[in-house]
UniProtKB/TrEMBL annotation:
<dbReference type="InterPro" id="IPR020481">
    <property type="entry name" value="Intracell_prot_inh_BsuPI"/>
</dbReference>
<feature type="domain" description="Intracellular proteinase inhibitor BsuPI">
    <location>
        <begin position="38"/>
        <end position="134"/>
    </location>
</feature>
<protein>
    <submittedName>
        <fullName>General stress protein 26</fullName>
    </submittedName>
</protein>
<dbReference type="Pfam" id="PF12690">
    <property type="entry name" value="BsuPI"/>
</dbReference>
<keyword id="KW-0732">Signal</keyword>
<dbReference type="InterPro" id="IPR038144">
    <property type="entry name" value="IPI"/>
</dbReference>
<feature type="signal peptide">
    <location>
        <begin position="1"/>
        <end position="22"/>
    </location>
</feature>
Amino acid sequence: MRGKIIIICVLVCLLTSCSSGAVKTPAQSSRDGMTLSTNINLEQVDANIRFIMTIANQSTAEQKLEFTSSQKYEIVVKNSNNEVVYKYSDGKMFAQVLDTVSIQPEEEIIWEEMWTNHHLSEGKYSVDLTILAKDIELSDTKSFVIKKR
């Protein structure tokens, strides 16, 4: 019984320590004189959608992003009624690990994610990207149209 209580306490501590009180600015953010920008683009490839996410270091100093889990980003797709039709993290589990990603001055990192067999009907949608770095949040939103071929 005592072991279960300790495990519960540890889990609660881990879950509550992941929040930050940082100011969050969409698309571009500055921290300690360092400027980062983020961008999401997408390509429709048959019944799949490829998300291409970029974080650019627009400063003259190395920028380090710290993450509290193996999930580096969240992608949310909404239809024209603002209903969520896809959320990257749904049905996934992420390890609770500390990780640091370094971006050199004037360089960028690129992540790609493929949403397979999306089954979206024709219409207008939006995609929201949030980079889940500790103490700084970068985000971007794009609108797109699905056309059946």
